[in-house]
Amino acid sequence: MKIVVCAKLAPDASDIEVRSDGSISLERAEWRIGSFDLQAIEAAVRLRDAHGGSVTALSVGPQRINHSKLRKDLLSRGPDELVLVAEDALNGADTAVTAQVLAAAVRKIGAVDLVLTGEGSADLYFQQVGLQLGELLAVPVFNAVSKIEVSDSQVRIERSLEEETEVLELPLPAVLAVTTDIHTPRLPNMKEILLAAKKPVYEWSLADLGLENTPEPRVEAVSLRAPRPVERKRILIEGSPEEAAQSLAGYLVKEGVV
What we know:
Blueprint: E1 2-6, E2 9-11, E3 17-18, E4 24-25, E5 31-33, H1 38-51, E6 54-61, H2 68-75, E7 81-86, H3 95-109, E8 114-118, H4 129-137, E9 141-151, E10 154-160, E11 165-171, E12 174-178, H5 190-196, E13 201-203, H6 241-254
Helix pairs in contact: 2-5, 3-4
């Protein structure tokens, strides 16, 4: 079977720098595979190992993702090849644009049986791209998938809902967004790291995907800022529980909290 696994490469949250004016800088942040996508990669590789076929890793984003270290990190985790759509026009692309580019890339790859994504991106975590991708490809799509079993031209999935586990059988092809507990991601060994350098990497542009005449990608108009430090009021409330509750409510109303 032919599997495509989508992985977003994003700045490492631990490298965020807070400037003196409270703004957040990602300039020095090292980019990594999204923590929610590592499980999707592991799920794709295990399905290939069990049923044969191939795994293509797919990532879209700004030119910065086209980096040898990031390519090697992705490929060392098991995929057979990597497709990158790296253009600065995609910097900050919203979920609709990201899904559009991914869908065009999946169509260009062709004859894909299964597309896997993480449950959300490591930076914005909107949990929308997988669902939008399935709609664009006009195939069955589900999120919250915690287990996948493939047989013939069908896939049996389990979905972890709030109070129950849902079991469904779907025809292939399909798009599935997996949860973080579906598998524990592997740590690549030295052999896998060395082999990663020999695996093919395909670099496609928006023009290659036939998207050069589409509207410019919308971007998230979000100004990231750290919360301003607030000095504690140090108010001590005394009295019975009922009196303390009334006093607390009064203070909250006075401060505009409620």
